[in-house]
Design a protein that fits this description.
heterodimer; A: about 750 residues; alpha+beta; PH-domain like; ABC transporter transmembrane region fold; 6-stranded mixed β-sheet; 19 strands; extended; B: about 180 residues; 3-stranded antiparallel β-sheet; 12 strands; about 40% strand; binds adenosine-5'-diphosphate; binds magnesium ion
């Protein structure tokens, strides 16, 4: 038998003299109602439920520096499972309670903070399984699915299998470099030319200084007096170095844009692949910021940063080696000075990274505000709030400016200090080296070369300090980009998708539960069924979960519990493409893409011919208003295009769906934004469209549901009533109430008219 | 301009806010541990209490709803309740709006869009450590006023830093990059 009982809980219960060998499931919850906030452990065996209240105290043990948690039990409760009624869960805002329902009485067994709700849900399921006489842990996810396979960290969000710990800066950089993989040849050329270039710049002091002073200017030198030859040699070395530099910049410029293009495409593709949930959980402002700004950051780092990193690192190590070869004693003195400088740089680096992060957050806030105010202009104007908006903007902008000022102040004091420090190092070397020359330990050429090399170190060091800030920004950007690329879509294509030849359209929803945000259920056990070819009408208040249900059928999200089947096949097993192609949704909020009206209508079937497009538009009563536009079917719509009214957009959307010719049609308040007359004319088109297809029609106006074969009333995430119009009217329940209210309303209007 | 303010006044005052008449109201705790309300002739054995301004004004405008979430009425201010009644109502509210106080921020790690925090939370005399993950920090780490901070983790838990000024230096430094 499978069990799940963490070790620390066993020991806590064992200390109470309880036989823990029969435990099948146990969990930790964080606070109990009885005597304030406590840690409670709760365990079930086949016969009993144990609740132990106590406190996990954090204590510092003497000697050891580690802090350990010690459990101090306070109170133990034991319930016989047979004496408990049905266990239920009640969600409050930031807490939940485990309740016992028995003889029409409900009592609270345990109160816990909301984060533990899934553990308690499992507990209830375990108890249910035990009572049903099946394996206790049936259908319960413990461990494996919740933890990262690589490192064992718990996924922060169980349904978004993304492990942040497995991603660190080094691996992010490695991944970024991985994008060079496809361009191996060019990358190798770039590398070789770069390295050769820096070799030449490194030997310049050897030739230009040491060779010139010690061999050409010195009487005992082997090339004494050959000034012209020496100068030409120096020039040649330099020229080759420059030529190599030009060559690699050239190859680089022809490679990197492709790599970044690759990256951008990967981001864009990943965004297409992601489920709708990803978009609704992030602020659009920061998402847009991601794609453009982040890809640009990475671009510039690749073009302008990374190559120099390689050159400078190479030069740095090369120069250090050469210094050691020239004179170990002097080199050692340098090595005392350099680490101090590096520490300085590292401190600066971490400060700048912080500034950058803050800056980025402000920036995306500003971006959101701009898009907010662009989209909300009408409301802003209507309430005369232009000044307030500007003030709000100025506030955040001001904060960002302060961060910038702070960053600049830090750099403008820190860098000169570092230079002073470096100059000090140079002075020390000159002094000590001077003494060594006087004592004949080294030649003048060696000292001068040494000083030349020392100054060659400053370049890379300075660059590294500055580029590390840049690198930080790039990693920061890459981190966010990879978040998009790596995010596993919640809704995934099954491994062996079922492909049906023809979808007939028997839809069945069983016990469907769903929540967008943790612990705020929207659908709470919804049961529905529609027979193939029939029309189901759905009514319910706003916020009841009607649109959510429609989205679940099209599998834009996956249900948390329960199942949705089409022709007996769970939607999770159906091929996603097939599913989405066979379901047509005319939804409440309609999105028009950038393009012409015709393009938008033929979105589902891009190869549809002009005549079909016009026919679809006519069927949707859209033709007349389209013809009234100057560019008719070629009118540009979408962002920056012609503005259309809500009803007009809905008609385009209906035309789009008519053209798609889906097997299952979902009309989510498809005609809500139209006047009664247009609605009536569209009704006919819709009626034709519905004929022979399974249709789910969600509507406010009950008159639009006249033709429905059956009706369901959804309230608070559940179906509260269902049946035919006649049955529901006789029942005199919720539907009857709605119907009479609307009828009354109509009467009043008619009387006034 | 003047006319519209006048209209707004009349519009707003036209609606009855439906305050509970505390003279005929009695809150009590059921044997099962729920909170109930005897109100005039009616006995609601299970009520829900909600704050209209949970952040800025938690002590005023409390909505009292029955089992079916239909509002019975509102309490203008908790201070109008007798001591015993106050305790019953507040203890129910605290269960709903449970948010442990943060005493210390032991560590903060920023990884791939998530911020991992190790917090010392609880109450005086019973503090414990808690690890939590926060996503979308702009949204989930929020200043409630100039000095009070709320942190919402991915599990839906909320933590409150009562006063940033009184927080120790190290904790503040760790939180600092996320305060806006
Ligand atoms: N993307 C979303 N994220 C979080 N909550 C949502 C989202 N979409 C809808 N909701 C919530 O789900 C509930 C049901 O919404 P919806 O299905 O649109 O209702 P209806 O279509 O019946 O008016 C509402 O309370 C709404 O606030
Ligand atoms: Mg809706």
């Amino acid at each position: 038998m499978k069990t799940f009982v963490p070790e620390y809980i066993i020991s806590a219960f064992a200390a109470q003299g309880i036989d823990t060998s029969k435990f099948v499931y146990a969990t930790h919850t964080d606070f109990a109602d009885k005597s304030g906030y406590l840690d409670s452990y709760i365990a079930v065996s086949n016969e009993k439920m144990y609740i132990l209240y106590g406190e996990e105290k954090v204590v510092k043990t003497s000697g050891a520096r580690r802090i350990v948690a010690v459990y101090e039990p306070k109170e133990l409760e034991i319930h016989d499972l047979s004496s408990l009624g049905e266990l239920t869960l009640e969600r409050l805002l930031s807490t939940g309670r485990l309740c016992n329902e028995q003889d029409h009485e409900t009592s609270i067994l345990l109160v816990f903070s909301i984060g533990f709700i899934s553990d308690i849900e499992k507990l209830i399921k375990v108890v249910k399984n035990i009572r049903d006489g099946i394996e206790p842990l049936t259908d319960i996810l413990v461990d494996e699915e919740l933890f990262c396979h690589k490192c064992g960290t718990r996924y922060p969000e169980p349904n978004r299998k993304l492990c942040p710990k497995c991603m660190d800066k080094v691996s992010i950089t490695r991944r970024l470099l991985g994008f060079f993989g496809h361009y191996k040849q060019k990358v190798i050329i770039i590398f070789l030319t770069m390295l050769a270039g820096s070799v030449f710049s490194m030997i310049t002091p050897l030739v230009g200084t040491k060779f010139f002073f010690d061999e050409v200017l010195m009487e005992e030198g082997s090339f004494y007096g050959y000034i012209l030859g020496a100068v030409l040699l120096i020039l040649l070395v330099r020229a080759v170095g420059v030529a190599l530099n030009i060559l690699y910049s050239y190859v680089l410029a022809r490679t990197v844009p492709w790599i970044v293009q690759d990256l951008k495409l990967r981001i864009f593709e990943a965004m297409q692949r992601l489920s709708v949930g990803f978009y609704t959980s992030k602020r659009t402002g920061s998402l847009m910021n991601r794609v453009n700004q982040d890809a640009n950051n990475i671009y510039w780092f690749f073009v302008d940063g990374l190559p120099y990193v390689v050159v400078n690192l190479f030069t740095f190590t090369g120069v250090i080696i050469l210094m050691c070869v020239l004179n170990v004693k002097l080199a050692l003195i340098c090595f005392v000075i350099l680490p101090i400088a590096i520490i300085f740089f590292r401190i600066l680096w971490s400060i700048f990274r912080r500034f950058h992060h803050k800056n980025w957050v402000y920036n995306s806030q500003l971006n959101s505000m701009v898009s907010d105010s662009v989209n909300g202009q009408r409301v802003i104007k209507a309430f005369a709030k232009e000044d307030t908006e500007a003030r709000r903007f100025a506030e955040v902008g001001g904060k960002q400016a302060l961060v910038d000022i702070h960053a600049m102040n830090t750099s403008s004091t820190a860098f000169p200090l570092i230079y002073l420090f470096m100059f000090l190092g140079q002075v020390i070397i000159t002094a000590i080296g001077g003494i060594m020359v006087l004592e004949g330990e080294i030649t003048i050429g060696t000292l001068l070369t040494f000083i030349a090399y020392l100054s060659m170190l400053y370049g890379p060091l300075e660059f590294m300090s500055w580029v590390s800030n840049w690198w930080a920004r790039c990693v920061d950007s890459a981190q966010r980009v990879f978040e998009i690329i790596d995010a596993k879509p919640d809704v995934t294509e099954p491994d062996n998708p079922v492909i049906l030849d023809k979808i007939r359209g028997n839809i069945e929803l069983k016990g469907v539960k769903f929540e967008y945000d943790p612990a705020t259920p929207v659908l709470k056990g919804l049961d529905l069924s529609v027979k193939a070819g029939e029309m189901l009408g759905i009514v319910g208040k706003t916020g009841a979960g009607k649109s959510t249900m429609a989205n679940l059928i099209a599998r834009l999200y996956d249900v948390n519990e329960g199942s949705i089947t089409i022709d007996g096949v769970n939607v999770k097993e159906l091929s996603l493409t097939l599913l989405r192609n066979s379901i047509g949704i005319v939804s409440q909020d309609i999105y028009l893409f950038i393009g012409t009206i015709a393009d938008n209508i033929r979105y589902a079937k891009p190869d549809a011919c002009t005549e079909v497009v016009i026919r679809a538009a006519k069927a949707a009563s859209a033709h007349d208003f389209i013809m009234a536009l100057p560019d008719a079917y070629e009118t540009k719509v979408g962002a920056g295009g012609q503005d259309l009214s809500g009803g007009e957009k809905q008609r385009l959307s209906i035309a789009r769906t008519i053209l798609q010719d889906p097997d299952i049609l979902i009309l989510d308040e498809a005609t809500a934004a139209m006047d009664t007359e247009t609605e009536a004319s569209i009704q006919k088109a819709l009626f034709d469209l519905q004929r022979g297809r399974t249709t789910i029609a969600i509507a406010h106006r009950l008159s639009t549901l006249r033709d429905a074969d059956s009706l369901a009333v959804i309230s608070d995430g559940k179906v509260v009533e269902s049946g035919t119009h006649k049955e529901l009217m006789e029942k005199k329940g919720e539907y009857h109430k709605l119907y009479t209210i609307q009828l009354e309303g109509l009467k009043v209007i008619n009387m006034e008219a | 301009m003047e006319k519209s303010t006048l209209e707004a006044q009349t519009l707003a005052s036209a609606i009855d806010i439906g305050m509970i008449d505390l003279k005929i109201a009695e809150f009590y705790v059921t044997p099962g541990g729920f909170t109930g309300l005897r109100y005039g002739e009616n006995d609601h054995n299970r009520i829900t209490l909600r704050r209209a301004f949970p952040i800025g004004n938690p002590e005023e405008y409390i909505s009292v709803a029955d089992k079916t979430n239909k509002e019975i009425g509102m309490i203008r201010s908790l201070s109008e309740l007798t001591k015993k009644q106050y305790e019953i109502v507040v203890s129910e509210l605290e269960k709903r709006y449970y948010s442990p106080t943060v005493f210390e921020v032991k560590s903060v790690k920023d990884k791939l869009g998530y911020v991992y925090m190790e917090l010392l939370i609880g109450k005086e005399g019973a503090k414990y450590k808690k690890n939590c993950a926060i996503k979308d920090v702009n949204k989930n780490i929020r200043m409630l006023d100039d000095d009070k901070l709320a942190i919402f983790d991915v599990d839906g838990n909320r933590y409150i830093v009562e006063s940033l000024v009184n927080l120790d230096k190290k904790s503040l430094k760790r939180l600092e990059p996320y305060l806006f």
